[in-house]
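Example 3.2
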Amino acid sequence: MMKFLTPVIVTVAVIGGTGLAHFLAPSAAGEAVVKSDKAEEASKAKHDSHSKETSASKDVAYFKFSREFVVPIMRDQRVSSLVIININLESSEDGLSKLFSLEPKLRDNIMTTLIKLSNERGILDSATAYDNYETIRATILKNLGQVSSEVHNVLILDMAKQDL
């Protein structure tokens, strides 16, 4: 009985936490695009009569997912811990609208990549090691190339691990 109770409790906690985070999170439309300082300066320069050569396609923009990624770490056919990762994607402003329409595919691709890293190589067990951190970032970026060519970089903003 206890063998079945623990996975059920973990599953309910993950689903409940994700649902709660979804309702408590600020609207995605208001925070989805965060321009870098250079992008803001480029936009201002574009409207300035002295600098008409700046192109909008070279502006940098960031795609923010509506919620974090929750990755279970399995050991001996049990969930031993959960890793929560907050990821943003760097793109051009022109490519940002394409990323919005591809969000479900992007989330699926990233989640699949994180599950593979979790199960096959155990990278997420010691994600704070620099080599593992860079491996996570590079693997996600490589796999996102299958979905969209608009992603230029993967930014890992937050990462937390909770042992169960």
